[in-house]
Specification:
About 5% of the residues have low confidence. The protein is built from seven helices and five strands, in the order H-E-E-E-E-H-E-H-H-H-H-H. By secondary structure, it is mainly α. Helix 1 crosses helix 4, helix 2 runs parallel beside helix 4 and helix 4 runs antiparallel to helix 5. The longest helix has about 40 residues. Strand 2 and strand 3 form a beta hairpin.
């Protein structure tokens, strides 16, 4: 997926809002949202929440996982577990970026939240680089004990290496072909030299 497509997917995530207006239910392709009643929370697609927030018609309620204690626990779990842990939201990076950009005032302790999310992302990226290195050098295990798994990677994280992996795989395949051809030519030369040596000693 392109970055725009990833953002489109992230914008479809359901998010809570508290509207400050009254309005009838809205019928969308993805389903019906509303009715909207001032002061009563409800869940709507993130793209609609951002649209209403820009018009100052609602306050966005951060998702449950966007909590300092929850993110701190997730960070420690991610550090402790060799493989990728299951994230509370598959679109956590995109959802965070959109909320931070358009509704930063609605997120308590936003700077700490940003730091925890960045730390979690960095830890997972380090794991991803290690896993890719292990894959390409033929290692089957990480740290000599635990086998690497790509399970629980999010679409955004996969996108960060999508363009690199095919290029790297193709480059390694070409290098292996060159090495095999070089070895084959070297063996042919050895055999040829052996033949001429044997022929010379026969005279």
């Amino acid at each position: 997926m392109d970055p725009e497509e990833l953002e489109f997917v992230g914008e479809s995530v359901s998010i809570g809002i508290i509207p400050n207006f009254n309005f009838d239910a809205i019928h969308l392709i993805a389903g019906t949202v509303g009715p909207f009643k001032a002061g009563l929370p409800l869940h709507i697609p993130l793209w609609l929440a951002i649209h209403l927030r820009k018009q100052q018609k609602c306050r966005i309620v951060p998702p449950n996982w966007m909590d300092r204690d929850i993110l701190e626990d997730k960070k420690e779990e991610e550090k402790r577990v060799p493989n990728f842990t299951s994230m509370p939201c598959d679109q956590y990076m995109i959802v965070s970026k959109l909320i931070f950009s358009h509704a930063s005032e609605d997120v308590p302790s936003i700077e700490e939240i940003k730091t925890f999310i960045k730390d979690i992302y960095d830890i997972r990226q380090a794991k991803l680089r290690t896993a890719i290195d292990s894959f390409f050098i033929g290692k089957k295990q990480l740290d000599g004990a635990t086998q690497v798994s790509f399970t629980n990677l999010t679409m955004f994280e996969i996108h960060t290496v999508r363009s690199f992996l095919p290029y790297a795989s193709d480059l390694i395949a070409r290098l292996e072909r060159v090495c095999q051809q070089h070895t084959s030519n070297a063996n042919d030369t050895v055999h040829s030299n052996s033949f001429f040596t044997s022929s010379s000693s026969g005279y």
